[in-house]
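=== RUN LOG ===
request id: a7f3
mode: sequence -> structure
chains: 1
length: 404
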Amino acid sequence: MVMPMDQRKRVFSVSELTGQIKGILEDGFPSVVVEGEISNCRPASSGHLYFSLKDKSSMIQAVMFRYRTRGLGFEPADGMLVRATGSVTVYAARGNYQILVEGLERAGEGDLLAMLEERKRRLAAEGLFDQGRKRDLPRFPSRVAVITSPTGAAIRDIINVVKRRNPGLGIVILPAAVQGEGAARELLAQVERANILNLGEVIIIGRGGGSIEDLLPFSDEALVRAVAASRIPVISAVGHEIDWALTDFAADLRAPTPSAAAELVSESRAVAIAEIAQLASELESGIMARIERARSALGRFEPSNVEARFMRLLLPASRRFDEAKEDLARGIEAGLAESRRRLELAGRGLEASSPEAVLARGYAVVRTRTGQAVRDAAGLERGQDVDIRFARGSASARIEETGL
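=== RESULT ===
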């Protein structure tokens, strides 16, 4: 826009110039749709939402008033790709132009769903999700491999459920990132490691709930193929009941939550022993009923032949009864002995891998004063105070020197 000659010579006040710019921008852009990444997201106590939209080379301020934010189906956050609908306005007090946002939606999610549906159809056509390929889980596994984040809520839920239902079940934790760049590669590597090293009789792979982008690593094609090809049965426990990932379809079993997956692999041994006792009681009752029927039949015999006939009828049944009881007792005893052996082995393994056992072998845990565990000396600074926990007791120290 070329300014008229008389405008070039005119001296404007700041308010006058800002007013003219405001009019030009607001009249020129009454309705726009802008796609960008949210940055500097600041929800105000008033309920209004202030943020910036940016791409690789530019940034624009944005504001969304409280009555507009109430209808959002998600919580805006930094780094989120969105599509904003609104108008361009000028905040005259500061001379800033910004977008007055009337509507906000996540961008790219529809494309992601379309991509996942296409991948799902293609892999299903190859037979990777066929029900006939799926295997039954062992009823009483002695060890389960869990592939998830070592710091997430999912692993805590799994451990708590197993500890409550079957403390003797061994848990091997295979840590992996569960979202973000590189997560799919880490998950794939742990599935392969569990199979190569035979780290469990069942694999649980999963995480807590999240957005479609958060769960995307569990729909990675290479990971889905590895889950389908796993020699060890796999339970996929991704998100909450309404969430889904392609590993759910490739796994031998899909659990709605990580806690539900733990329930599936930790059937109570007390319940199983009660079932055995019930079966034994039913068997004994059946044998005794047959004996009673035999006794009734003996009443029709002549007195002189009663004893001989009775013995001929009773002895085979009695022998079968004794043999059945002995076989049952031997079977129960063998099962209990095997269970005790597995419980003992699992207990030793769990004890050897517990944090207390690691500390007892001479290791220590170093934490900053904020409670963060120190895993890399590069994160420490000279003169920084740290706390050190040993197997017995703790101490404080100050960093004098660091090195790699």
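=== NOTES ===
The chain has twelve helices and 13 strands.
The first helix runs from residue 5 to 9.
=== END ===
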